[in-house]
Amino acid sequence: MTTNQPAAPPAGPVLGVDVGGTLIKAAAVAADGEVVARLERPTPPARDPDTVLSAVGSVVETLRAQVPDRVEALGVAVPGIIDEARGVAVMAANLGWRDTPVADLLSAATGLPVALGHDVRAACVAEWRLGVAKGGSDVLLATLGTGIGAGVVSGGRLLVGSGYAGQLGHTVVDPDGQRCSCGQRGCLATIASATAVVRRYAERTGGAEHPDGTPALSARDVAQRARAGDPAAAAVWADAVGALGRSLAIAVTVFGSELVVLGGGLALAGDQLIGPVQDSLDEWLTFQRRPRVVRAAMGAESGVLGAALLGRAALEETPVT
Amino acid sequence: MTTNQPAAPPAGPVLGVDVGGTLIKAAAVAADGEVVARLERPTPPARDPDTVLSAVGSVVETLRAQVPDRVEALGVAVPGIIDEARGVAVMAANLGWRDTPVADLLSAATGLPVALGHDVRAACVAEWRLGVAKGGSDVLLATLGTGIGAGVVSGGRLLVGSGYAGQLGHTVVDPDGQRCSCGQRGCLATIASATAVVRRYAERTGGAEHPDGTPALSARDVAQRARAGDPAAAAVWADAVGALGRSLAIAVTVFGSELVVLGGGLALAGDQLIGPVQDSLDEWLTFQRRPRVVRAAMGAESGVLGAALLGRAALEETPVT
């Protein structure tokens, strides 16, 4: 009888690594979900795959040395068009990678089983497995940061679309709007990303930059100014909320989501974002499912935790997608 | 050893029934996919579940008497908000049903295992299993008829969203547009359904109706007039194509579809629809996947065939969703 029982899943920790344009964030996560070690390093200025993946390899070795138990696997989250099934970064926009076989390269470098994931889908997995969307069947998580991405769970499965799913930030809201980095005009990300809110406020107020050219304000600062009665900030904030409501309404109409989770820099505004987006979304919906809009629970660590979950799922041969 | 082998799937035919606002269409489909009998009856004018499901039961018994082999199962496709997993029509708009346990009622009436499906998702299953989208991983089928619905396959699975997925016809294209039956303004269905094309042409030309008030023209007729140089027809057709391109671009951006299949009355225009919609869609896309746009292969029988496939899948306990 015992020969037919599956082997017990490996009990050691897995590593999760989130490779962003600015930081490589990493954590070792025990089988019970506890984070047993953390590490953060700047992403190397040279963005070629060799340099960045070498830095990831170094982060992995440092974390391995910090945890007493044998590390079982590695999950890595990267932004862009990420084909999880093949472990390939088809296009990692802010890193400049094209068709990079990240999983194979890191597996060769570390000797670990490696699962590659998309940063926003990884964050979605974290919120869906451990956070505010735990156990949901039909969930949409949108991160509102440098850009806007979405992770979508439908019928209890993560949607991948061979890497192309979830590009909510590039749904067009205003065809006559500002040029987007993707080449189109008026994408949601040009109005409602944290970056766009800061930029649009600066455009209205004549700029608010540090002497070195970096923005002096965060999206949260713009939100606070809006609340304090600054009309330029209020207009920019209202535009962002309205565009989010409209684009989320379309997404909810085609996905049938029961829960919308908002994360990223813009969501740091908390109730000043969540309530108005809920109201704007509700105004667009008639017979459709009316999802609750909530704030992500996990903050900036969701990508790392999601990457670790992807690593463990691959190890247990129970992929989440 | 043999005790561990699954039982052979039942070899007899299954019935597929597509319950529309006008017609109840049905077919008996053999295990090899061949249609061995067909039947069509008007949908009863009284739309209450008892009357309509009684008519469905009568269609089932008539078909059973026509096929020599034992009928194994029944698949039924209904429009609206259809919860396949529970077998419940949450809201069947043009039939007026609410929370009707269709699968249980028909199973009790016929003694057959019954799978309930959504009409457009059933059509999508038929094209995906047997038709122009056969074997695709990421497919979007849109039917352009009385309204507009979509069936979506993502990662080789049909999306259901607890019944709420795929309401492409109610994505808003023009917030200042005409009132939609759903209560919103400017839904895609108010511009690009077959019904809308006929209505909008009649509005521009002072009406083109038979003496009894029914439209004298089909959407295909409007397409032909547009091709012949009728400016009103050309304007209405261009609006429909443009709205479809824009809404499909948003859908492709969030689903990552590799193939878009167009069916329903509007697709009878063939190349006059497909090429222009492909061009309009392509204009909206930048880095996204660029799906091919093709015409549905199965025509008006796709709902029936899809319903039969759902019936057989349930029987074999290999659900397609």
Automatic annotation (TrEMBL), chains A, B:
Keyword Transferase: yes
Keyword Transferase: yes
Pfam families: ROK
Enzyme Commission number(s) from the entry: 2.7.1.2
Keywords assigned: Transferase
GO MF term set: glucokinase activity
Domain of life: Bacteria
Top-level EC class: transferase
InterPro entries: ATPase_NBD, ROK, ROK_cs
Family recorded in the similarity comment: Belongs to the ROK (NagC/XylR) family.
UniProt xrefs under PANTHER family: BIFUNCTIONAL UDP-N-ACETYLGLUCOSAMINE 2-EPIMERASE_N-ACETYLMANNOSAMINE KINASE, ROK (REPRESSOR, ORF, KINASE) FAMILY
Protein name per its UniProtKB record: Glucokinase
Biological source species: Actinopolymorpha pittospori
